[in-house]
Amino acid sequence: MRHMRHVNQLIQHCVLHRHSLEGLEASVQCGDSGPSRGQQGWQKAATSALGSVAIALSFFAAPGLADPFRNSSPRPIDPQAEAAFEALFKQGDYVTAAELLQTASEDEPLTHGMRASIAYLNGDNGSLGTHAALTRAAAERLLERDALRGNLYLASANFLEGAQVIEERGLAAATPSVLGKLQQVFTHLRRAEAEDPNDPELNLLRGFMDLMLAVNLPFSNPNQAIARFQENAAPSYLVNRGLAIAYRDLDQQESALEAVEQALAETPNNPEMLYLKAQILVRLGRQEESLPLFNQALELREQLPVSIRRNLAWEGCRTTNRINRIPDEQSRNQCRVVRREA
To answer: How far is it, in rounded angstroms, from Cα 190 to Cα 94?
Structure first.
């Protein structure tokens, strides 16, 4: 999924002194429309929130294993959806994940959530809307037997629907609907919390979202969110992936490098993790060291969505040209071709 870079500016200036979901909810109640870059922020926030929900539900990733969150009363998840999630997040293989999702249970909201996220990354707004609606329908059915998971996925569905509305209408026309969707996100998170405030699945979701907000909102305290995230989240390869992205965006590149190396130790063939480490090395000024990682990730590009592999190709090309001292305008023209053909 797209990396967490900017939280929706639709709400930033109302939350200057907050860093948590409660701060985000307060900002929504402000009802301010914010600047035009809010569209990009909402889109990234929506995908990040979906990723948080999916990650929180993914730790059943090997069929037949006990619930790694709970010592008792494990929750069942469709085995095919589990396998698809492992392909997506552990292997970075979107193609295999999409194939597995073709035969996954239609009653499992995780099935539709992953289909929606893949459609979003592929720029397929029609399929995004379809699978967002199916995520909602499956979550509503799930409410009858598991209110906590049902509400978590209803929160996810509202984020997805908000992203789809902005893609379709543009930010200005979509703002009233988007604000309503955000309110529904908070409503369903509160309902899930009412079921079990100590549930690790719920706390992981909130931890991911708090981390996203803390990293991107001005005047926030990311250290608190990072500490909560480290304490509540599992498994380690996903914890370290999230930490690497957070530290990267906080410009704490040495910490980012340590985290991504730990993630790669468990997922050595994930092209997204190879790409992430290459980005961090570039920011550390170690461009030559980044090239083998860009190349390794590019060798696996066919398993990535077009949007990710084009960005990967662009950054790899630009880094190579900087090392080779190619003039900037010539480099840009060359890399635009490389990106287009990726």
So the answer is: 32
Residue with tokens 């698809």: 84
Q: Which residues contact 83 (CB under 8 A, 6 or more apart)?
A: 61, 63, 100
The alpha-carbon radius of gyration of the chain (Å, integer) is 19
User: Alpha carbon of 46 to those of 40, 69, 89, 323, 334: distances in Å?
Assistant: 10, 25, 17, 36, 33
What are 35's two structure tokens? 């600047």
pTM: 0.78
Query: What domains, with CATH codes, occur in the chain?
Result: 12-220 (no CATH), 236-341 (1.25.40.10)
Weakly modelled stretches of the chain, pLDDT under 50: 1-20, 30-69, 71
Specify the pLDDT at position 91.
93
* Distance separating the N- and C-terminal Cα atoms of the chain: 18
Q: Which amino acid is at 292?
A: P
- The predicted pLDDT at position 14 comes to 32
H helices present in the chain, as ranges: 21-30, 38-57, 79-89, 94-101, 109-121, 125-142, 147-169, 171-195, 200-216, 222-232, 236-249, 253-266, 271-283, 287-299, 306-323, 328-341
Rounded distance between C-alpha atoms, residue 28 and residue 31, angstroms: 5
The pLDDT assigned to 16 comes to: 31
- C-alpha distances (whole Å) from 282 to each of 215, 263, 290, 291, 297 are 20, 18, 6, 9, 15
**Cβ proximity of 34 and 10 under 8 Å:** yes
How many CA atoms does the CB half-sphere of 29 hold within 13 Å? 8
